[in-house]
Amino acid sequence: MNVLAVAQREENRRLLVKLSVIAALMFGFGYALVPVYAKICEAMGLDSLVPATTRQSVENTQIDFSRTLSIELDANAHHLPWRFRPLVRHIDVHPGELVTIEYEVTNVRDYAVTGQAVPSYGPQLAGQYFNKLDCFCFTKQTLAAGETRRMPVVFLIDPKLPSDVNTITLSYTFFEVAGLKGDKS
Amino acid sequence: MSAVLDPHGHAHDHDDHHHTPTGLMRWITTTNHKDIGSMYLWFSFVMFMVGGAMAMVIRAELFQPGLQLVNPDFFNSMTTMHGLIMVFGAIMPAFVGFANWLIPIQIGAADMAFARMNNWSFWILPFAGSLLIMSFFMPGGAPGVGWTMYAPLTSQMGIGMDLTIFAVHLLGMSSIMGSINIVTTILNMRAPGMTLMKMPLFCWTWLITGYLLIASMPVLAGAVTMTLTDRHFGTSFFNAAGGGDPVLYQHIFWFFGHPEVYIIILPAFGVISQIIPAFSRKPLFGYASMVYATASIAILSFIVWAHHMYTTGMPVAGQLFFMFATTLIAVPTAAKIFNWLATMWRGSLSFETPMLFALGFLFLFTMGGFSGLVLSLAAVDIQLHDTYYVVAHFHYVMVAGALFTAFAGVYFWFPKWTGRMYDETLGKWHFWLSMIFFNITFFVQHFSGLAGMPRRIPDYPLMFETWNKISSIGSFGFGLSQLLFLYIILKALRSGEKAPALPWEGADSLEWTHLPTPAPYHSFETPPVIK
Fold it and tell me: CA B151, CA B472: separation in Å to the nearest integer?
């Protein structure tokens, strides 16, 4: 092979390396587009049909602020060695508003006890408008000897609640689940 | 096409002492640019037939409303695979085939710069093609996500999607290696005196296309790799549930996808720029402006990608930018069209098959360009997005643009490649049948698109029935006409008349003026000197 051909090969090889580097960089560029787009969209408030100014304060549009309901909370334990009380006795809510309240229960005896809470509503009619998303009354509760537990109720009042109802009393009564003696299940 | 080439039959091969393997091994081990060019062309023709058969299934299903032949899933696989196979399997390899055959003999080089890599870039292709076809036999079938492979559909597909992703990886590797080879050959291997501005325009368009491929193909590889890791490795690039964004995929894909359409059409412009002067017996009008127009199309192609995405909820400022940038591309493209027309002006025209296909290209590509201008307007596009109007538009530029040009090129260089002439009468039949059936197939799709018929749907309301019937009949005719092309080629290879040394008197590039017909297996081992 003559000198010219060797020089030619060397030159070709150099161009090959350069072009391969471009190809590799462009592969990286594809990945670089991911953060670049994230930044651009964030900076310009793009990538969302909701304008950035209003996006932070997305509100529940289903709340009826024109009405305020008084919810009275009550707790009883029926022949059960438990101390059971709501953390607040009274709360004001708007229909449609998602509310979380808490109850506290303490087993004062030195053995485990299983109980089941049963709700009741006053007026009774309000029960069907009282939508609970989460409640300790959904399951049996087993408390070890001397255990104290805080338990939530998450609920909202259906805005369709008849307009003559202004106060709802929510009352829970714990009954012992006989025969379980603190045994779960 | 080079089956009749005799690798040993040339007297000036005496310095070549190693014996070329014969039979199958010759083709597997070959590093000869002519062999590889022929293999590219045959491969792309096989893929063209496969993709064409899929198109026939699509049109048969759409012959009347309702679901008759295939279920919707399979229909979706058909549209997806038709697109992928035609773009990556048929059109692109065809023009790489032309590049392999022609660039060395047009610039006076002995072979491509990296002959072994050239072999490799071809032999990746059959594997990629098989992966695509194999996906039909996987549970869940071939992906039915559309050739654009949009998230989030891609994350829901079966294992066929993974095979498709790997096929795209392989096809991308093949194209990148091919382009590096072409760019290096053109920049480093030109004969003494062959300055860049003396090169035939086909070499110029491929030089620019090579750069486009090197810059855009890796981005597609990145996009499908992200899809792959989203599917199997827990990333969330496009998965909204994990904080990703499906629209991001479209941005990355079209950053590749728009340069891709110019990757397909620029070499076609190059072929046309060789053929029209040859049959007008005049030099190309405005050579330098052709080069600059090609370069500006290539540069502009990188800043217009989002015109495929007007309906994704882009801000108005973005829509305006991409709209203006897109309409700007019409300027260099129109410069090319006018240059071709000016080349023909007062030329001594003759209308052999290559010229007919070139003129068919000129006429139909311009129409496709105009419907492209219509679609570039954001306000209009929102109405027409994903309708048959878009299908009509891109088939005018892909089929009448790129495919007709490939036919023109095959007819034009066939005598140089094989030393034999095709049957001129049959060639003219092939052109007129293709021309007529193409328009029957696709012209009516403008109307069904304007009326609102969505693309990629196996069923449609009764009101679209007439247009679809016409279109389906046209497509069957178009498909059958392509069998005539196969017959013409086989007939010419077996019993074609011997070609004269200069079959086209107006052809004046190096392969016609400095090489015998057919071109010898080894050419320009001593570079010619260009004055």
Answer: 30
Domains in chain B, please, with CATH?
A: 34-513 (1.20.210.10)
Q: Do β-strands A141-143 and A82-86 pair in parallel, antiparallel, or remain unpaired? A: unpaired
Q: How would CATH label the architecture of A69-176?
A: Sandwich (2.60)
Q: How far is CA A23 from the centre of its chain?
A: 47
Q: What angle do CA B435, B437, B442 make, to 5 degrees?
A: 95
Question: A29 at the B interface (CB within 8 A)?
Answer: yes
Backbone CA torsion sign across B99, B101, B102, B105: positive
CA dihedral for A89, A93, A96, A101, sign (positive or negative): negative
Residue-range domain boundaries for chain A = 3-55, 69-176
pLDDT of B2 higher than 60: no
Interface probe for A, chosen from B120, B187, B209, B214 (most Cβ of A below 10 Å), is: B214
Residue located via tokens 């508003």 = A97
* Residue A149: strand pairing partners: A105
Q: Strand pairing partners for A153?
A: A101, A135
Q: Decide: B122 and B174 in contact? Cβ < 8 Å.
A: yes
| Per-residue model confidence as pLDDT tens digits over B301-353 | 999 999 999 998 888 889 999 999 999 999 999 999 999 999 999 999 999 99
β-sheet bridge partners, residue A113? A143
Active site residues of B: 82, 111, 147, 174-175, 258, 260, 262, 273, 307-308, 333, 336, 455
Tokens (6 digits) for A132: 């609970």
Spatial separation of the C-alpha atoms in residues A128 and A170, rounded to whole Å: 12
- Does A35 reach chain B within 8 Å, measured CB to CB? no
- Enclosing H/E stretch for A76: strand A69-78
Cα(B409)–Cα(B98) distance, rounded to whole angstroms?
8
The residue of B120, B149, B173, B176 whose CB has the most chain A CBs within 10 angstroms, and thus the best one to mutate to test that interface, is B176
- Closest-CA distance, A57 to chain B, in angstroms, reads 20
